[in-house]
Amino acid sequence: MATYKVAVNMEFVRSADMDFRAGVKVAAELGYRWIEPMVHTGYELLSEVGYFHSFSMEEDPLLMAEICARHGVQVASLSAHSPLMKPEAAVSRLTRAAVLASFVGTKFLNSDEMLKPEWMDDEEAHQAMHYTLRRIAQVAARHKVFICIEPHGVYTKTSAGLLKIVDLVPSPWIQVNWDTGNAYLAGIEDPYEALERVRDRVMHVHAKDISFEHSEKERGKVTGTPVGCACGEGVVDWDRVLSILDPLDREITLSVECGTIEQAGRSRNFLNNLLKKRGSMAA
After folding, report:
1. The whole model's pTM is what?
2. Alpha-carbon dihedral 102, 10, 242, 249, rounded to 10 degrees
3. Residue 27 in contact with residue 35, Cβ under 8 Å?
4. Which of 86, 74, 66 lies closest to 8, judged by CA?
5. pLDDT at 282 over 80
6. How do strand 146-149 and strand 108-112 relate by DSSP bridges?
7. Rounded distance, CA 249 to CA 259, Å?
8. Residue 112 forms beta bridges with which residues?
9. Among 1, 5, 113, 186, which is least packed, fewest CB within 10 Å?
């Protein structure tokens, strides 16, 4: 029987123009014990001047752990989104994220296929992703971290397309991060039936709700969105999502992806109350 813990993706402070340190402090003040930092390579300008929450992997990997410990939070996963169809970028980025994961104590790196270049056809795209995943599966095995691919792009907008990518390279370390909001917005499949089809591969969940207004405006027109509304205030049937995941015999992180600090607070309260009611909250 699955158990669940609630985390927050650091995107929730993007609209407040906060850096990583400030965002961790706010997450702790909201009552979160787990966070999902975004990581990048190089020195990103907005992060360097304190206006963006992403954490540079050029930094000492123990710095992230130190900042989190200072505020009593832990890293549940890393948002290490890398373009699987661009091996020259993705292999390096995911490798460094796996190393960072070892230092901060998480086993989950979340990614997706990202954008397909216009000049690349479907066969070439899957060949490129195969190469990337073949390389990174070896790294994941050494560090014992899961590369969790989510529905977000042109191929992963269907459960069959998502599973095709996950299965390009046979490896227990390549699995699924289910994004409830992206799966709904794609509008191609019933998102709950799609979740049932990929359930056995789900190791992590992006808890993203979609407002009714957002749904009316974009469903069927996009394959994903950066953030949603507060969990429990949109279209997602959370009881049904959890009922589908319940048969899994593992702990699953529900990492909230919302757009504001206030939404993060309401999302935490909603999910914690729902999990307590269901008796399925992790210790």
Report:
1. 0.97
2. 10
3. yes
4. 74
5. no
6. parallel
7. 31
8. 83
9. 1
Q: Any idea which residue has 């963006």 for tokens?
A: 52
Reading the block at residue 141, the tokens are 């095995």
Q: How far apart are CA 264 and CA 202, in angstroms?
A: 23
Compute the half-sphere exposure of residue 251: CA atoms within 13 Å on the CB side of its CA: 13
pLDDT digit string (tens) for 190-233?
A: 999 999 999 999 999 999 999 999 999 999 999 999 999 999 99
Q: Which residues of 152-190 are buried (b: 16+ CB within 10 A; e: fewer)?
A: bbbbbbbbebbbebbebbebebbbbbbbbbbbbbbbebe
Query: Hey, what CATH topology would domain 3-278 get?
Result: TIM Barrel (3.20.20)
Q: Is the pLDDT of residue 281 over 90?
A: no
Structural tokens at position 137: 């599966």
Give the count of beta carbons closer than 10 Å to the beta carbon of residue 120.
Answer: 14
Dump strand ranges (E) for 27-100.
34-36, 39-40, 55-56, 74-75, 78-83
- pLDDT tens figures, 236-250: 999 999 999 999 999
Residue tagged 């490896």 (tokens): 171
Beta bridge partner(s), residue 209: 229
The tokens of 213 are what?
A: 């207004």
The answer to whether 127 touches 90, Cβ cutoff 8 Å, is: no
Residue with tokens 């999990």: 275
The angle subtended at Cα 231 by Cα 186 and Cα 100, nearest 5°, is: 80
84 close to 43: Cβ distance less than 8 angstroms: no
Check if the beta carbon of residue 93 is closer than 8 Å to that of residue 76. Answer: no
111 forms beta bridges with 149
Both structure tokens of 233: 């205030």
pLDDT of residue 283: 58
The proportion of the chain whose per-residue pLDDT surpasses 70, expressed as a percent, equals 100
Phi, psi of 272 (to 5 degrees): -60, -45
| Band (58; pLDDT cuts 50, 70, 90) | very high
